[in-house]
Design a protein that fits this description.
Layout (H helix, E strand, L loop, with lengths): L1 H24 L9 H15 L1 E6 L11 E4 L6 H8 L5 E6 L8 H7 L3 E3 L6 H14 L3 E4 L17 H9 L3 E7 L1 H4 L10 E7 L13 H14 L8 H7 L16
Parallel strand pairs: 1-7, 2-5, 2-6, 3-4, 3-5
Antiparallel strand pairs: 6-7
Helix pairs in contact: 1-2, 1-4, 2-3, 5-6
Length: about 260
């Protein structure tokens, strides 16, 4: 019954926040003003869920520089976690267009100027690239979940190439980000939000100076390695990791040869 109350509270917070975003988003060409609503929503979701977090590595970043954040994906709660963990940045997601049909949440994504991609249409990649470039020209950072879906067991999946092409084309630095713990708090396929602590590790930005479309495979392998380096193994606790003083390193996986 406790989980039903939490789910109801999350719904009560989400619906008015989405409505406000939709209404004011019509008058906000880049979604920069309504982003404050997203931050308030994310804060409320985490408080209701009893979720806390620690962030490492924010000192690597400059609030004046937009980035392409490449993040592992374990849970739907990754989104509010990132909004709160990266407070100095305006964030927009590249997400599959099917999410826009989700009542309230998807409509608010559209109004807040997040970027939807049709994965069944390869020609849509050019439109996505143009939209992302316009957002970054206005100081907005782009978040990409390069696995393309949530990992069901916490292991890092192969990376899709689209986000890397975006970074190379726009010459925006890639920041590898590793999230640990969200898979246990809200597992894939479950609706019950559990209490717990999340750890977010922000890596050193990777300059696109020496990369081009022909070197995307090498770039993806490097980002995959950096994200995996900070990822806990599926059986490892934060305490055990701290005791041994290192990170569980997963073997690099190949990228999938898909556009986005």
């Amino acid at each position: 019954m406790f989980y039903f109350f939490k789910a109801a509270a999350i719904g009560i917070v989400t619906v008015p926040a989405a409505i406000a975003t939709i209404v004011f988003g019509f008058f906000d060409p880049h979604g920069k003003r309504v982003y404050g609503i997203s931050r308030l929503w994310a804060w409320a979701i985490l408080r209701i869920g009893g979720v806390s977090f620690k962030v490492h590595g924010l000192n690597h970043l400059s609030a004046k520089q937009p980035y392409v954040f490449m993040v592992n994906h374990q849970s739907n709660i990754d989104i509010p976690v990132l909004v709160q963990a990266l407070p100095g940045f305006q964030l927009r997601w590249i997400a599959k267009k099917e999410l826009l049909w989700v009542p309230f949440f998807g409509w608010a994504m559209w109004a807040a100027k997040h970027i939807a991609v049709d994965r069944s249409d390869r020609s849509d990649a050019l439109a996505v690239l143009a939209k992302a470039r316009r957002q970054m020209d206005h100081g907005i950072s782009i978040v990409v979940f390069p696995e393309g879906t949530r990992s069901s067991d916490g292991r890092l999946l192969p990376f899709k190439r689209g986000g890397f092409l975006l970074a190379v084309k726009t010459k925006m630095p890639i920041v590898p980000v590793t999230i640990n713990g969200t898979g246990k708090i809200l597992p894939k396929g479950d609706w019950r939000t559990r209490r717990g602590e999340i750890e977010i590790t922000v890596g050193t930005p990777i300059s696109m100076e020496n990369y081009r479309p022909g070197t995307i495979r090498q770039l993806a392998a490097e980002v995959h390695r950096r994200v995996a380096q900070q990822l806990w193994s599926t059986s490892e606790t934060a305490e055990a990791r701290a005791e041994r003083g290192g990170a569980a390193v997963a073997a690099p996986a190949p990228i999938e040869n898909r556009t986005l």
